[in-house]
Amino acid sequence: MNQPVIIFSDLDGTLLDHFTYESTPALPVIKQLNAANVPIVLTTSKTLAEVLKIQADLNIKAPLIIENGAAIFIPKNTFRVQPKNTLSMGQYWVKSFCLPRQHWLEVIKDAPAKFKGLYQGFSTLTTEELAELTGLSNADAELAKNRQYGEPIHWRGDEQSKRDFIEYLEKSGATVLFGGRFFHVCGNSDKGQALTWLTEHYQKNIGAYTISTIALGDGKNDIAMLEAASIAVQIRSPVHEFPVINKTQNVIQTQEYGPAGWAEAIQHLLPESLSSNSFSTKIYN
User: Fold this and answer.
1) What are the phi and psi torsion angles at 94 (to 5°)?
2) Residues acting as catalytic residues
3) pLDDT tens track for 95-151
């Protein structure tokens, strides 16, 4: 691939192992991508606090997309000028796509009484309860609770009640996205919309070169991102089948699971970039 590339990567079940949250099999490839100036945009249902910690651990410095596409945090050295319709927050320009979390908490609170006791939201769980539910450490669970745009729901009832509850949420204006363990109640935003917006701004920054995008994900909440990318990589999951996507060309399904599948796909798609310390077109300033 001899054109500039941006990688958009889901975390849970993709770059992070579904069970251990480790990314060990992908670390050598990430190091090579960093050396080749290929941006890795972490695109996740996780919170800003969670992703900043993961970025630091992986030595990734690209923009990041949080809470299923609700907002993009762009380091201010990414583009020459601040993109329109973004806010300046510390070292980031921030593009938001939907209403804040408190709005959706009110919608959930006003749900019919018949749903009481059938679900748990992150806002109602203690740090210890969330850690037990997810397998996260208490410290990481605390970061996961610090949401800005939406509310993850752990469903405890039957499937028919779940469908009825989701119907209520959608009639109330919410978008419901399904992740690996929870479904997310949020505004009208998704990872695909965020991918498209950010790619357009990268394209403006570099001019004549045409950017190619590679999206990697394993869950239903990754479908919009996979369909918006030039190349879609569906990561094999140990707990569910590949979600059905409408995209039929430039789709790869990995043989390996999680971060091992992530590394497998990138090594297949970008062999030239991984064998050199100089990428064809650097798209950072």
Assistant:
1) -120, 125
2) 10
3) 999 999 999 999 999 999 999 999 999 999 999 999 999 888 999 999 889 999 999
